[in-house]
Amino acid sequence: MTETDTSAPAQSSTHAGSAWADALTCLQADQSKVHAGGGTKAQARQHDKNRLTARERIARLTDEGTPFDELMTFAGWEMYADVGGCPSGGVVTGIGTVAGRPWMVIANDATVKAGAFFPITAKKVIRAQTIALENHLPLIYLVDSAGVYLPMQDEIFPDQDDFGRVFYLNARMSARGIPQIAAIMGNCVAGGAYLPVMCDTLIMTEGSGLYLAGPALVKAAIGQVVDSEELGGADMHAAIAGTVDYKEPDDDAALRRVRALADLYAQGDVAPWARRRAEVREASGRDLSEIVGFESGKTYDVRDLITSITDGGEFHEFKPEYGETIVCGFSRVGGYPVAFVANQRTVIKKKLKSGGEPGLRTRIEVGGVIYGDSADKAARFILDANQAGVPLVFLSDVTGFMVGRDSEQEGIIRRGAKLVNAVSNSVVPKITIITGGSFGAGNYAMNGKAFGPRFIFAWPSAKYAVMSGNAAAKTLMDIQLAALKRAGHEPDDEDLKRLYDEVKSKYDTELDPRYAAARLWVDEIIPPNETRDRLIRALDACAGNPHQDELRVGVFQV
């Protein structure tokens, strides 16, 4: 739990606009770098083999004119630099429309280390599969991978969230009747060979290879000399082994086959809340970056943000005069009923109950901080949303829980635990959008990654850490300073400045949303003005799961 830093100066609208423009330009440039995969030479090598790149395959697979909502674009960002990096984790994942229906697509990028699995690759595929499992989204795998990246095999192979989990989820989704189609369009080697074979349907292009061990390894292991086609080519698997269901001459033919098969699958039932979808009304179209400043210093009324993305600006606010640092209420987005839990960022003058200090009738509460009454309100509202069976949308811009004598005596830990309990045990779909700070225990209370959101998005302005940069730098510097003094070294002003700058620089790097996205703490970084559209399509995806567990909260603090 963190202290509140209120020292940041307010921004002018001109400066705020410039900061947003710079951030969005930088985001677009960085996305372009990632989309280049292994670079132009690697793309040319793929084309020389008469094969498409991962993103080219996805573009031809999905319905023309429909968006592909890429997820985890920045996986592996600035990681594995000593081996040349791993753009986008070497695999492209996202939700696209195929034959009029949303499908999760997982496509190996063979331009990045021949599509080999790095540690982050396995975690990204597992996250994509988990999203599909939770939302009953059908999957299409476009396989073109050399298998595990052997120099890092110890970080990829054995653990619960490592490579083996991919096949576990493969099997679990099959058992639940979630459609899975695989197309082998290049290499499919070693343990990775199990993934496509465990799908409902397997397609393979001529010139591709499917085997547990390639020709070189077979020769080394048992001394047998055999070429790739005889060992695991499309002809062999189609005519002799019987592993392949459909053999196709090239990528285009394989993708047409995938589309045709996808069009035949039965449509499942939808979630009860999705059956209450109303006619879609337009939102205000207001520029959200004009409401929320890029830096955390600008105060804003989160109700303006909510009504700018809801249908017709509708918002039924729950307990508007109580616990005002969290705003809760029901609305509709894209016709779907939703329940918002949002951090308020205005400065609030709170009325105090009688019996306090003589003459004191109000106190100032800082926006972005969770106080006891706001924790109580949010916990109660989350239970209401579950009772109504309405999905929860968290708009997170949180500094943390309030600290200090008064807050402790008011039971902030007990009341905060109640909110965390409600978030943890909620059974309706939960979607989180981080618009600003996501600090400390506030991250937990506002449905951070550890609390199982169906989707978690971040704006370029998001900051993700235990505490704010200034507070962390001061705290860490004090610790290091004490250590230096114990060692008999009394630092001068120049030493202090250098030490502070080093700590602050490292912490600021870790605050950047790309750092979080690289490690899959968020599913995607999105521009503010794409929030409504992405939210609607996320709800479309969530609507595919008709099952809702019974709400049970265990020991609930009062």
UniProtKB/TrEMBL annotation:
What region holds the CoA carboxyltransferase C-terminal domain?
Answer: 272-541
**Signal peptide bounds:** none
The family database entries (PROSITE patterns) matched by this protein are listed as:
COA_CT_CTER (PS50989), COA_CT_NTER (PS50980)
Note the SUPFAM superfamilies from the entry: ClpP/crotonase
Query: What organism does the record attribute this protein to?
Result: Deinococcus arenicola
What is the protein's name according to its record?
A: Acyl-CoA carboxylase subunit beta
Which PANTHER family does the annotation name?
ACETYL, PROPIONYL, PYRUVATE, AND GLUTACONYL CARBOXYLASE-RELATED (PTHR22855), METHYLCROTONOYL-COA CARBOXYLASE BETA CHAIN, MITOCHONDRIAL (PTHR22855:SF13)
Query: What domain of life does the native source organism fall in?
Result: Bacteria
InterPro entries per UniProt: AcCoA_carboxyl_beta, ClpP/crotonase-like_dom_sf, COA_CT_C, COA_CT_N, MCCB/AccD1-like
The record's Pfam families line, in alphabetical order, gives:
Carboxyl_trans (PF01039)
List residues of the CoA carboxyltransferase N-terminal domain: 19-277
